[in-house]
Amino acid sequence: MHADPDLAKYREQIVWADKIVFVYPIWWGRPPAMLMGYIDKMFASGFAYREKGGLLPEGLLKGKSVVCISLMKGPAHYPLFWLNNAHKALMKKALFHYVGIRNVTFFEFGGMESKSGRQKEKLDKIYRYFQTVGR
């Protein structure tokens, strides 16, 4: 496991949390390198998963859920139609399922830099989602 002492408090927060929320832009069809670097350090062997000698490791974050809120300048359906949802596959299958998290919810919003991007409507959708989760 990556032994950076600064990561200990963040790992404690992940252990404590039932739901983990990531908010990030989509750059070049994927999350930014800084977020992926954080994930590489945080979701390390010995913390997020344990090798057990089989094809896949044992995920140590079972029972948690994740919400990914991604924003982009381009059209909302660009990742689906042009990139075959590579971003979602990366986050859901290659990361969260690998560490035992099965409940993953995505919100992807395009046109966020446009004056007619309906930003308030998009924020209201997230607000309503979190209102229902807390009940």
UniProtKB/TrEMBL annotation:
Keywords: Oxidoreductase. It is an enzyme of class 1 (oxidoreductase). It comes from the Bacteria. The keyword Oxidoreductase applies. Gene3D superfamilies: 3.40.50.360. Residues 5-124 form the Flavodoxin-like fold domain. GO terms for molecular function: oxidoreductase activity. Its EC number is 1.7.-.-. Belongs to the NAD(P)H dehydrogenase (quinone) family. This is FMN-dependent NADH-azoreductase 1. It comes from Paenibacillus konkukensis. The lineage of its organism: Bacteria, Bacillati, Bacillota, Bacilli, Bacillales. The gene is azoR1_1.
